[in-house]
TrEMBL record:
Gene3D superfamilies: Vaccinia Virus protein VP39 (3.40.50.150). Residues 1-23 are annotated as: Disordered. PANTHER family: HEPATOCELLULAR CARCINOMA-ASSOCIATED ANTIGEN, HISTONE-ARGININE METHYLTRANSFERASE METTL23. Signal peptide: none annotated. The gene is A09p015710.1_BraROA. It comes from Brassica rapa subsp. trilocularis. This is Methyltransferase-like protein 23. The lineage of its organism: Eukaryota, Viridiplantae, Streptophyta, Embryophyta, Tracheophyta.
Length: 226
């Protein structure tokens, strides 16, 4: 369902515990989007897929400390908060409108997430205090000129929390090779790689397109399997 007010819309995202939509095991998240502005004010397909993964693995997320990078409209982090995670949502520190929208979206869903600016490759004091169990990032690998900064930040956060994992969804436009190369460069390794459509319910898959992959990444000297 989408409600329109000028260029701003509120989209509703439903997650069902089983195929018949049993309300006992279902959640709904509302997201404020703005179609004409920033990348971070739109729910991208990678976000729909990562949010579904969080929902399907909700027992893993319940009680965990989650950090979402480049969260934008924040659907995966909001689902994690709904299932009982302690969530910090972050985006580029210079994107005040995106950060304000993240706060509004938390209020809309009655969720108490932390919202903060975190620009990849920038070492503000706040980043040193972050100790997530799980780092999320949907469609954060879209501009190759920013890949090193993103991986530098992910590598730093994983070294600060060596048992943590980075779970990201991305459009696989030119093969997995560049990401493989950067993982080696930044002391990281892939412990899981799946087709993003392989676990998506057909009613959601039919609305999306593209070659989207989900990877779980850890420190290469850390744990070996997720
Ligand atoms: C394609 S959008 C994805 C947004 C959201 N995760 C989703 O999938 O709907 C990329 C996001 O990364 C953020 N971003 C881009 N460059 C960044 C940087 N250098 N540091 C932090 N965030 C950045 C953008 O503001 C935007 O929210």
């Amino acid at each position: 369902m989408t409600t329109a007010t000028t260029t701003t819309t509120i989209s509703q995202h439903d997650f069902y515990g089983d195929d018949d939509g049993d309300s006992e095991t279902s959640i709904s998240v509302s997201v404020i989007e703005n179609m004409k502005e920033e990348y971070g004010l739109f729910v991208w397909p990678c976000s729909v897929i990562l949010a579904e993964y969080v929902w399907q693995q909700r027992s893993r997320f319940r009680g965990s400390t989650i950090l979402e990078l480049g969260a934008g409209t924040s659907l995966p982090g909001l689902v994690a908060a709904k299932v009982g995670a302690n969530v910090t949502l972050t985006d580029d520190s210079s994107k005040a409108e995106v950060l304000e929208n993240m706060t509004r979206v938390c209020e809309l869903n009655n969720l108490n997430c932390n919202v903060m600016g975190l620009t990849w490759g920038v070492w503000d004091a706040t980043i040193f205090d972050l100790r997530p169990n799980i780092i999320l990032g949907a469609d954060v690998l879209y501009d190759s000129s920013a890949f090193d900064d993103l991986f530098a930040t992910v590598s730093f956060l994983l070294q600060n929390s060596p048992d943590a994992v980075f779970i990201t969804t991305y459009h696989n436009r030119s093969g997995h090779h560049l990401i493989e190369f950067l993982m080696v460069k930044w002391g990281l390794k892939c412990v899981k790689l799946v087709d993003g459509f392989s676990f998506l319910p057909s009613r959601k898959a039919s609305l999306l397109s593209g070659n989207i992959q989900l990877v779980e990444i850890v420190l290469s000297c850390g744990k070996s399997a997720a």
